[in-house]
């Protein structure tokens, strides 16, 4: 390791009156990497990020951002970081350009206003009032405001939450383009596909703790299988029937009437599932296979789904 | 896109100026702000100016109780254009007196009886007029002949009293809502949080509210002076400069107060309540629509210490009495204290996120 880490957190704890939001997170983030903080709502992602951004103070723990400490070097850090909060509402009756200009004026150095707007592809909306922007355009404006200081370190807190798939993809393109420029990016999300798409490294947090840390492949491998079979039959096969007749099941979970089996070898497991259904005299209603996802990882590690609302 | 950027890109404005510009644009582009700041006082003064316009007094209404001499009495009374008499049964006449429809009831006779409500100012006038009319009709000869010259001076009408009152109230309202409300709005929308995550100086942020208030105040004062002059012929007897200066102190005083009132409020509902708590009592006590001297003696020291009272005394002093700034020292001091102390306090306790 030559360069010091962009972010270094040791045993970070944040307590509110009766809740422990962050419960001992330790994390080093190398300069130039794109790291995703993945977890369900209320996992402590935003609190962690806001402590790193200097917006909240930790209850205890050591935090270094770009080698500096907030207690002593707040001004120096602020000039070198950029951030997009979870849903900032800018002034409705300011134009995109005026908004970026305002934020640009706070920084001693940075991009030109036009350049920042160009990077998020809002040129055509430069003279549009913020109130007339779509949700996706507003989020892109938030990213432009984050970029205008030309920051070494960029925080994006749930940049695509609440956006339609198309807006989300267009914002992913913007973020993807930043990765090539040697910037360090820390983004939080509760969309696993977003983390998988954008991040070199994923840190899964749940209930204020880090539960897993690695690349997507490492994480999926860690749960014992890269393939997932989803099957629904009528009548439904019991867990015991499936475990007894299908070889190599690393994990078995259910979502509604669908059973999900994590396995290593599809060519062995799929025929066995079909045979099990026949043996039980059941009709197959659904049989599909897919790659295991981060959601499977999350479920395996925490016992609950990333998407609580959909579980 | 990778072209080298100039070290100091052109057209970059100082952050304080940018923030002030943001505030001013946000206000200027908000139709409701324009309505409340400019149109509302204009409409209010037109409505009240028409309702209370100085006009010749109406004839005093008098009822004459039914009886043999009733019709003759009515004729005698109606010879005086200041009286308007009608005949009515005694019971009905008394009922009209009770409801304030007539100021006095005459029961004719050798010694006519005058029934009057001593708490009604009209009653006293009516008694004098009726007395006079009946005496003259009975053959009294006057020893003196009076000539009456009628004058109505600008500066003494209700509208002259009202215009500075509305201006002071406008300053208070735009201070409270334009500053206080915006702060809470920025806090709830997280814009405040986003701003303090930049290297922005917090003092710049708060100063920008003061600066944008100064700009808007100038426009408000000019607008008031202009329409009051054009529509109602209201004049500023003192110096314009002193008037604008007094309005500025007033406006800044309320801006400082509003920043304190909303320095911790987390949501619009709380802020709205606090704003009303701040503005409503002053709106009634400080004499916007009628003189605050109507309130009992013991309340006067409290009323005098309110910033709006000081502001209105100052504005009216300059506008109506031609007072100099120097002579308004106490009023300016009261306003300044209400601005500076809350602002300093707000800096200490302001909730930034």
Describe the model.
The complex is a heterodimer of chains A (311) and B (353). Chain A is an alpha/beta fold and 311 residues long. Chain A folds into two domains: 7-215, P-loop containing nucleotide triphosphate hydrolases (Rossmann fold, 3-Layer(aba) Sandwich), CATH 3.40.50.300; 224-291, Alpha-Beta Plaits. Helix content of chain A is 34%, strand content 28%. Chain A has a six-stranded mixed sheet, with helices on both faces. In chain A, helix 6 (165-179) links the parallel strand 6 (153-157) and strand 7 (184-189). Chain A is elongated and about 75 Å long. With 353 residues, chain B is mainly α. In chain B, 62% of the residues lie in helices and 6% in strands. Chain B has 13 helices and four strands. In chain B, a hairpin with a 5-residue loop joins strand 3 and strand 4. Chain B starts with 14 loop residues before the first helix and ends with a helix. The mean pLDDT of chain B is 87. Classes of the chains: A alpha/beta (311), B mainly alpha (353). The interface between A and B is medium-sized, with 34 and 28 residues.
- The CATH class designation of the largest domain in chain A is Alpha Beta
The profile of the biggest β sheet of chain B is:
4 strands, mixed
Q: Quickly count the helices of chain B.
A: 13
Q: Which stretches of chain B are poorly predicted, pLDDT < 50 over at least 5 residues?
A: none
Q: How much helicity do the residues of chain A have?
A: 25-40%
Q: What strand order characterises the main sheet of chain B?
A: 2-1-3-4
Assembly annotation: heterodimer
Examine the secondary-structure arrangement and name the CATH architecture of the largest domain in chain A: 3-Layer(aba) Sandwich
The number of strands of chain B is 4
Helix/strand-derived category of chain A reads alpha/beta
Mean pLDDT of chain B, to the nearest integer, reads: 87
Biggest β-sheet of chain A, characterized? 6 strands, mixed
Query: Order of strands across the biggest sheet of chain A?
Result: 5-6-7-3-8-9
């Amino acid at each position: 390791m030559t360069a010091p880490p962009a972010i270094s957190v040791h045993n970070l704890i944040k307590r509110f009156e009766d809740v422990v939001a962050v419960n001992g997170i330790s994390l080093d983030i190398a300069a130039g990497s794109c790291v995703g903080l993945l977890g369900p709502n209320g996992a402590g992602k935003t609190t962690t990020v806001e402590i790193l951004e200097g917006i909240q103070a930790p209850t205890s723990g050591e935090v270094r951002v770009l080698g500096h400490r907030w207690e002593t070097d707040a001004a120096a850090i602020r000039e070198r970081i950029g951030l997009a909060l979870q849903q900032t509402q800018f002034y409705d009756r300011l134009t995109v350009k005026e908004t970026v200009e305002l934020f640009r004026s706070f920084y001693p150095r940075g991009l030109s206003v036009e350049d920042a707007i160009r990077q998020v592809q809002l040129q055509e909306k430069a003279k549009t009032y913020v109130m007339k922007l779509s949700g996706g355009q507003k989020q892109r404006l938030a990213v432009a405001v984050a970029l205008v200081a030309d920051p070494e370190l960029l925080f994006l807190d749930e940049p695509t939450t609440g956006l339609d798939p198309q807006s989300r993809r267009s914002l992913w393109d913007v973020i993807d383009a930043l990765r090539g420029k040697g910037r360090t990016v820390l983004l939080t999300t509760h969309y696993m596909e977003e983390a998988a798409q954008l991040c070199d490294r994923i840190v899964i947090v749940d209930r204020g703790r880090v539960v897993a840390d690695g690349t997507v492949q490492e994480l999926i491998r860690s749960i014992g299988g890269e393939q997932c079979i989803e099957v629904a039959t009528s009548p439904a096969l019991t867990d015991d029937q499936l475990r007894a007749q299908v070889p190599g099941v690393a994990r078995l979970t259910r979502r509604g009437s669908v059973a999900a089996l994590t396995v290593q070898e599809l060519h062995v497991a799929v025929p066995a599932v079909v045979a099990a259904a026949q043996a039980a005299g059941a009709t197959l209603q659904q049989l599909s296979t897919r790659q295991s996802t981060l959601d499977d990882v999350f479920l395996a590690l925490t016992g609950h789904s990333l998407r609580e609302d959909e579980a | 896109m990778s072209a080298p950027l100039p070290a100091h890109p052109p057209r970059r404005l100082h952050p304080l100026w940018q923030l002030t510009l943001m505030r001013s644009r946000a206000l200027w582009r908000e139709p409701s702000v324009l309505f409340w700041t400019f149109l509302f006082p204009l409409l209010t003064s037109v409505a009240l100016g028409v309702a209370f316009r100085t006009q010749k007094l109406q004839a005093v209404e008098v009822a004459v109780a039914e009886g043999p001499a009733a019709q003759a009495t009515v004729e005698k009374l109606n010879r005086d254009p200041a009286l308007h008499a009608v005949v009515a049964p005694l019971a009905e006449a008394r009922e009209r007196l009770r409801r304030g429809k007539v100021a006095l009831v005459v029961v004719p006779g050798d010694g006519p009886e005058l029934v009057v409500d001593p708490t009604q100012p009209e009653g006293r006038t009516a008694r004098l007029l009726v007395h006079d009319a009946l005496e003259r009709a009975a053959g009294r000869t006057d020893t003196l002949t009076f000539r009456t010259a009628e004058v109505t001076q600008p500066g003494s009408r209700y509208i002259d009293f009202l215009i500075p009152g509305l201006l002071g109230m406008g300053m208070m309202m735009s201070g409270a809502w334009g500053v206080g409300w915006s702060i809470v709005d920025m806090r709830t929308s997280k814009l405040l949080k986003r701003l303090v995550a930049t290297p922005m100086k917090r003092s710049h942020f708060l100063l920008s509210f003061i600066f944008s208030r100064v700009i808007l105040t100038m426009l408000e004062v000019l607008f008031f002076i202009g329409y009051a002059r054009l529509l109602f012929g209201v004049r500023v007897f003192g110096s314009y400069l002193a008037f604008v200066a007094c309005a500025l102190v007033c406006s800044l005083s309320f801006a400082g107060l509003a920043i304190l009132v909303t320095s911790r409020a987390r949501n619009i509902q709380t802020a709205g309540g606090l704003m009303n708590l701040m503005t409503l009592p002053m709106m009634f006590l400080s004499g916007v629509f009628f003189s605050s001297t109507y309130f009992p003696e013991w309340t006067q020291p409290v009323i005098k210490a309110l910033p709006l009272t000081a502001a209105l005394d100052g504005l009216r002093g300059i506008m109506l009495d031609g007072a100099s700034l120097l002579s308004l020292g106490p009023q300016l001091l009261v306003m300044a204290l209400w601005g500076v102390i809350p602002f300093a306090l707000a800096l200490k306790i302001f909730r930034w996120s």
